[in-house]
């Protein structure tokens, strides 16, 4: 399993982050434990969840509870890098990053996860109604208390990350160490709207490259849409550029004897991005594990980068 250390942290993580969005709600204990055990057996150590997973399948918090039970049953908390989030809509909690909300949701997450600290704690979205000084100040208090080790952003624009970095530096408080963003091989249309979710764009990619800032990609496989006929590509990605990139993706997959999904995961890790991917079946997870072990040549990486409507 490929690994990396997130810049400006002591977090040494697998470049496969297992998404726990459906654990405890869609996926019962048997399925959840099987996926977690298979992931760890395959060399993974990086787990991702949120305080509101999966409110659309239940009440929210089920994923953290399932992960907490699994960690306790396996006795492997110290071997796992555990990431969760706050700020998204949760049970009896609106979308908010007010200081009192940050602290309350942290305490709730710690209890569900059955741990005394969160390795990586994300703002789930950018709450522009609360000054960054207040938001980051509240996170800094949690870091100083040992309840949180490092802080990340999710669904933030590059300019807001730059603002946050300046606030942290000016006030000598905890700074973001990474950003978790919607990111896949296909590029969205110019007019694409994902609601509160934010897709990676050229500005964010440049920000991450110039500052050695870790990009963590969610929805890298578009829920199976690259390969499943029953799951069409989302309308936000339907344009000529996607047609050209998908053609190149499938051509390369055939050339090297891999699946398109495996090529996408290998392309992301080859460019230093940590993808988050979930699974509910052993075969799905096995396919992903192979993709994360796959190393693409520089020539193939360049071909994948260059593909698009303007380049054929």
The number of strands is 10
Q: What structural class do the secondary elements suggest? A: alpha/beta
CATH-assigned homologous superfamily? NADP-dependent oxidoreductase domain
Top-tier CATH class: Alpha Beta
Please write out the topology.
Layout: E1 3-5, E2 12-14, E3 17-19, H1 29-41, E4 46-48, H2 62-74, E5 81-86, H3 99-113, E6 118-123, H4 132-144, E7 148-154, H5 158-171, E8 176-182, H6 202-211, E9 214-218, H7 240-256, H8 260-270, E10 274-277, H9 282-293, H10 298-306
Structural features, described:
- Helices cover 41% and strands 15% of the residues.
- It has one domain: NADP-dependent oxidoreductase domain (TIM Barrel, Alpha-Beta Barrel), CATH 3.20.20.100.
- α2 crosses α3, α3 packs parallel to α4 and α7 crosses α8.
- The protein contains 10 helices and 10 strands.
- The strands form 2 sheets. An 8-stranded parallel β-barrel has the order 3-4-5-6-7-8-9-10, surrounded by 4 helices. A two-stranded antiparallel sheet has the order 1-2.
- The protein is of the alpha/beta class and 312 residues long.
């Amino acid at each position: 399993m490929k690994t990396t250390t997130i810049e400006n942290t002591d977090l040494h993580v697998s470049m496969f982050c297992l998404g726990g969005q459906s654990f405890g709600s869609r996926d019962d204990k048997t399925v959840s434990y099987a996926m977690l055990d298979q992931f760890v057996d395959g060399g993974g150590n990086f787990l991702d969840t949120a305080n509101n997973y999966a409110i659309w399948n239940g009440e929210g918090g089920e994923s953290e509870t399932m992960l907490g039970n699994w960690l306790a049953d396996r006795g492997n908390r110290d071997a796992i890098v555990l990431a969760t989030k706050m700020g998204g809509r949760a049970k009896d909690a609106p979308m908010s990053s007010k200081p009192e909300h940050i602290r309350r949701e942290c305490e709730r997450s710690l209890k569900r996860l059955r741990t005394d600290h969160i390795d990586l704690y994300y703002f789930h979205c950018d709450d522009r109604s609360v000054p960054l000084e207040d938001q980051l100040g509240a996170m800094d208090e949690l870091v100083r208390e040992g309840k949180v080790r490092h802080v990340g952003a999710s669904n933030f624009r590059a300019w807001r990350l730059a603002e946050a970095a300046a606030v942290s530096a000016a006030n000598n408080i905890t700074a973001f160490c990474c950003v978790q963003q919607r990111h896949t091989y296909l590029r969205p249309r110019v007019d694409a709207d994902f609601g509160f979710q934010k897709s990676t764009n050229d500005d964010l990619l440049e920000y991450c490259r110039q500052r050695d800032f870790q990009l963590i990609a969610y929805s890298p496989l578009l829920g199976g849409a690259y390969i499943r006929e029953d799951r069409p590509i989302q309308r936000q990605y339907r344009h000529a550029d996607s047609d050209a990139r998908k053609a190149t993706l499938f051509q390369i997959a055939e050339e090297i004897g891999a699946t398109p999904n495996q090529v996408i995961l290998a392309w992301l890790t080859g460019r230093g991005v940590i993808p988050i991917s979930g699974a509910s079946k052993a075969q799905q997870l096995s396919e992903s594990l192979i993709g994360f072990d796959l190393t693409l040549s520089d020539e193939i990486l360049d071909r994948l980068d260059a593909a698009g409507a303007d380049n054929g």
